[in-house]
Amino acid sequence: MASSEEQREPLLRKALKYYENCPGCKVEERKEKQEGYPLKELILVGLLVLCNGSSFMFGRFLTSALWGMAADKYGRKPIMIIGVSSVIVFNTLFGMSTNFWMAISMRFLLGSFNGMLGPVKAYASEVCRDEHQALGLSVVGTMWGIGLIIGPALGGFLAQVLIITKRECLLILVMRGMFHK
Q1: Residue 87 near residue 110 (C-beta atoms within 8 A)
Q2: Burial of residue 125, with CB atoms counted within 10 A of its CB: 0-12 exposed, 13-18 middle, 19 or more buried
Q3: Please, what sign has the CA dihedral across residues 123, 124, 125, 127?
Q4: pTM over 0.90
Q5: What are the residues whose beta carbons fall under 8 Å from the beta carbon of 109, sequence distance 6 or more?
Q6: How confident is the model at residue 174 (pLDDT cuts 50, 70, 90)?
Q7: How many other C-beta atoms can be found within 10 angstroms of the C-beta atom of residue 25?
Q8: Do residues 59 and 102 lie in contact, with contact meaning Cβ atoms separated by under 8 Å?
Q9: Residue 168: its pLDDT value, please?
Q10: From CA 70, how far away is CA 83, in angstroms rounded?
């Protein structure tokens, strides 16, 4: 039986070359030198994710009653349109964030401007008869969960990088000029 030292040794050694000012190389070099579990990095990642999620919920907490009053005064449809629009705008800006604080503020603004959950639940309970209200409200929660699964999967699929060479780019521009009049 192999000793524990032999088991820790990787079967294939990579011959790595690190470049001086490459951020990815610095990360890989640090990972190679590290021994044991990266507890400090895991705690940092956990705190960042916690800040991200809590900023959304904090914005939602501050404005949900206001969105409910606005839905009662102006109707549910305009509030739902504002909610969907805010999801499009602020999730796009969140995806294009250049630093941590921009990401946190976009999530906070998304939570603040997304007052959809209350009006949607109220609409579901109004449309269903009394004996089917529980089913209507459970459909809202179920569709929310399905959206949380399908949305990131679809976004990851659509975010795959398309690599275009200079020759292909020139060909696209020439063809666009020929057929675009």
Answers
A1: yes
A2: middle
A3: positive
A4: no
A5: 59, 86, 90
A6: low
A7: 14
A8: no
A9: 63
A10: 12
